[in-house]
Fold:
Amino acid sequence: MTTQRVLAPNRQLLNKVPEITVYFWIVKVLCTTVGESAADFLNVNLNLGLTGVSLITGVLLVVALAVQFATKRYVPGVYWLTVALVSVFGTLVTDNLTDAAGVPLEASTVLFGVLLAVTFLAWYGTEKTLSIHSIVTWRREAFYWLAILFTFALGTATGDLMAEVLGLGYLATGAIVASLIALLAIAWRLGLHPVLAFWCIYVLTRPLGASLGDYLAQPSAAGGLGLGTTVTSLIFTAGILVTVLYLSVAKPDVTPAAPSGASRERGGLWQTVVVLAVVLIAAATGYSARKSSLQDTPAAPVPVAAPNANGGGPVTHVTPLGDLSAFRKITQDTLDLLNAGDQPGATSRVDDLESQWDQAEARLKPKDRATWTEVDGKIDKVLRELRATSPRPADEKAALTALLGSLG
Structure:
């Protein structure tokens, strides 16, 4: 057993993480939703961009982790603030790989899955346990937070892959993920190893929270409630604050005593192998079937008719993505509203561009990934300009004009 006289990295502390109760999962989902909506708010509404948001969040996360490691026991406010920041940062890690580096979500999913597996192997090889009921040394805590970071990144990549690349949408993705969580909870009741069940559910709560956040924030035309990222972030942040305040006072999630040694549970190895095999087979089968169903349209360019500036009839524009006239119309409508001085109308109209573009991603992206990425980047620029806290008409119009040029 570790004692106070061993070296600093292994010094025994009180358990640094909360007991797994219903409050744990409530705050976890709330933090996940805030991570999704807050990243979008900072990136788009405050117009900080992915790089700026990533730097700011990264610095805040380092500070929060330093405070968390400095504590000698579980402190709800410090712990959940760190989780919330890891949620935002983990989301941004995946977004940077996808949007800035152009890494496909399939590759990101595999990458973070491998990194998470390596973390667990190193953790178990060193500590002989993956139980979160024994986070009583700084080394175990370091493994714990590294695993948490990779679960958020993996959950982001997996959720986006299902919702966007496979075209399932966030509501359907949320329903599928919720069903998987329910199955795992039932399996745990029937004897599934608790540590295995915990980490599987932990990964899945990320796309569940993101789907909930997107459903609340997306406009009604896209099947959401139209609350926007600002209101959604505020609602869930308030929920986190109220719940954490209750946990700080009532302490229903404080572990009475940290157990020593490895977990006494047995069967974790073979159950992990079986679960991983089932997940990989099911995921590969589902992915292949869904991709095949999406490849029913030819990738050949489709002509798009646009008015001739000289009044001589339509001019045919060719785009590798096919007919983008619907997106061009929304863009032109938005520009016309801006030219007429109707900023609220333009901001409202651009919501249709975002929702319809997201819904069409699974159909358009396979036709020409490079063209899709170019157009997607210009749409992101338009969204940032029109949703900025202090929008500048000249920048908005320039972004819309550049987008029109790419839409044919």
About this structure: Strands lie at 302-307, 314-319. Residues 1-12, 258-263, 297-306, 308-316 have pLDDT under 50 and may be disordered.
